[in-house]
Every structure is written in structure tokens, then in C-alpha cells.
Amino acid sequence: MNIDFFRYLPPEIIIEILSRLPIRTIVTFKSVCKTWRNLIQTRAFADSHLSKSSSGVVTCRISRYFKIFEFVDELDLDHHNRHYIPVTEFCCNKFMESSQLEGSANGLLFLRSIINRNNLYVCNPITREYIQLPYARIFSSFSVLVTYGFGVSKITGRYKVVRVLQECILHPDTMGVVRITKCVCHVHTIGMGIWRSIAPSAMLEHDCFSTAVFINGSLHWLVTDLQKGFKSISCFDLETEIFSTFSPPLLMGRSENRTEFRLVSLGEYLCVCDNTREDEIVIWLMKEYGDEKSWTRGFVVRKTLEFLRGNFELPNFVCPIKVFKNGDMLMAWFQLYMVHYSHKTKDTTRIDVFEPYEYDNDILLHTSSFLSLKSCFPMENVRLL
């Protein structure tokens, strides 16, 4: 590419051209000249690129090794492995020994330390920047459920981390939650430097083993009313900072095993994945966001032996990640491996492109971006990976 061609072009035109290139090409172009490097680091470029970016996934192996992939969603691909392009990878050992993926929004990852759950981080794998959130003490009691969420408000564009703490009474034999006795909620707005207390959610048990679903400017958790035994969806509006609840699909299966239900997002839809049936997986879509009457059986996936190989003692649940244009689907089986579901043949195939993929792994929908933590949040102590 001839640099002289760009010399007399307005910056907005250069941004429009460069932002259409693949991520790895853009990273290379940062080294071409100082002008391009500075341009790529601007918020205008980050926003332009993000508006055109393809979604992808981030995987975390053994709680520390991260890989970023980008989806290629074309109808004429001759093999399912060609749906995925490696973008970058990194290890979190520099700032914590082991981590848990807790959220993704506009290219930023929210990570929690497994060893010290007070240590929270936000990072951008593309710009190689990260920040540590201010310390906030958790209840001293052992029997505390801690649930997190991360997203960006719809109007003001503020990035926020939400933490719900629930003090509870546990069953002496099963160690299951019997009753919630106290609920506290904190919000941290990135760049503000403090945690704020807000009105807590209802006394509903949050599943602290699942990740909050960020969609439509709100965070969502699948919660349980311990007194009545009913499940519902807790919603937190990141703009108004108000909790609300709405009902899941009425025809959803019944189960005492919380792992058999998963709340996910597929494209623009909020979804519930129902793993309670022996022969099939039902994925419910909320066709009109917030309308409880709009739940629809969107996808039905036949269970095959591919879902049952390995350790039969492990929970048998599958979580959908991405639906492609041809109807094929990427799904995660427990925390063991990824599978590709063919809409045409109705068969599932284990995907090798994410290998090595072992027990104790995470995978999360993620769209890469060039959003600079240093530029967007100048008050934060931004460090490099």
C-alpha cells in the first residue's frame, strides 16, 4: 500500500479505510509511521473499527492462557474450522496467578482473580493494556454468593462493573443455599475510581457459577426464588442502575440442577438454553426484548454421543455460543470442549481449532477492538500486559 496516497487524505477518510482491514493487519500498520500509529490509537478510530468488527470468542485455558478468535461468517466455507481466525493471545501471569472470565464489552475483558476474589481487572488484549479495579472488601462470612457483571450503558457509554453479594444460610449436609439473609449491590464506573452502593436486587439466589449476559444495555442473570422454587431473569439497567425481573419461557423444563439451564445471547436475542431433556437441547429466544410473551423455541439440537463421551459423572449441559448464517452453531460442552452443530446434517462434531482445550476452561463471546484504556480513562493507572 502506497503511503504517499494517504498523505493528503483527511484523517476521517484514512480512519474509514484502515478500520475495514483485518485486526492483525491494523496492528502491523501501527508500525508503518507515527501518524498512522497515533490515528489508530484515537477514540474515533476505535469507534469506527468496532462498528465494522466481526464478533468472535475468547478462550481461557487453565485459568491463565487466553486466545482471541474472530468469526468468519460466510455461506460457502468448505469446512467448519474455517469459521475461526486466530487474532491474538496473552497470559495473565504478569498481574495475577489465575483468573476467571466474568464479562466482555466492546473489546474489553473483565477478569476476576480466582485466588483473591477482591482482585478485579479490565483489559484490552489488542492494545495490551489493563487496569486493576479499586479494592472492595467482601463480607467476612464464608457463606456468601458473589456475582459479577460487566457492560456499557446504552446512552452515556459508561463502562461499569456490577457486584451482587448475598449472605446466605447453607444446608448442613448438601451445602446448598437454603435462604438469602442479606443482599448488597455495588457499582464501579471505570474511570471514576470508587465503588458505589445502590439499591440491591430482590432476595433471589444468583448463580455465581455463570456469567452475566450483557445485551441491550443491561446485564442479566438467571435467578431462583428459594421459597417458591421458581426461576426468573434478573435484569440490571446499566443506565438507570435499577433492577427488574421477568419470567423465563413457561414451557421450559423443570430441574433441581441449576447447571441444566443457561442464559445466553445469540446475536440480538436474549436466550435460555434448556438441557433438561434426554434427547434434545431446546434454545428459547426472546423475540421482543422485555416481552415475556415473545419467548419462542428458536432452535432444537438433537443430543448425540458426542455430548456424552468422556466423564459420565460430569453435568451434561451444552451452551450455544454463535449461530452462523447457514444455520450451523458453535456450542460449548460443559468446560471440556467445543462442538460444531450442522444445520444440514443435524450432527455435531468436535472442533479442534481451539485445542488444546482441557478441563477448567472458559469461553466467552467477544468482539475485539482498539479501544485504548489510557486514552478513554486517563484517571486510571493503566499498565501493559
Topology record:
Blueprint: H1 3-7, H2 11-18, H3 23-29, H4 34-40, H5 43-52, E1 56-61, E2 65-71, E3 84-91, E4 99-105, E5 108-113, E6 120-124, E7 129-132, E8 144-152, E9 159-170, E10 177-189, E11 195-198, E12 205-206, E13 213-215, E14 218-225, E15 230-237, E16 242-246, E17 261-266, E18 269-274, E19 280-286, E20 295-302, E21 318-323, E22 329-333, E23 337-341, E24 348-350, E25 361-366, H6 373-376, E26 383-384
Antiparallel strand pairs: 1-2, 1-25, 2-3, 4-5, 5-6, 6-7, 7-26, 8-9, 9-10, 10-11, 12-14, 13-14, 14-15, 15-16, 17-18, 18-19, 19-20, 21-22, 22-23, 23-24
Helix pairs in contact: 2-5
Q: How would you state the average pLDDT, rounded?
A: 83
Main sheet record: 5 strands, antiparallel
Characterize the overall form: globular
The unreliable regions are: 309-314
Helix content: 10-25%
Strand order of the largest sheet: 4-5-6-7-26
Radius of gyration: 21 Å
Measured by DSSP, the beta-strand proportion falls in 35-45%
SS summary, helix count: 6
Could you say which structural class the secondary elements and strand pairing correspond to?
A: mainly beta
Q: Give the N-to-C terminal Cα separation.
A: 30 Å
Total count of strands: 26
Compact summary:
The protein is mainly beta. Helix content is 11%, strand content 42%.
What would the keywords be for this entry?
385 residues, five-stranded antiparallel beta sheet, mainly beta, 6 helices, 26 strands
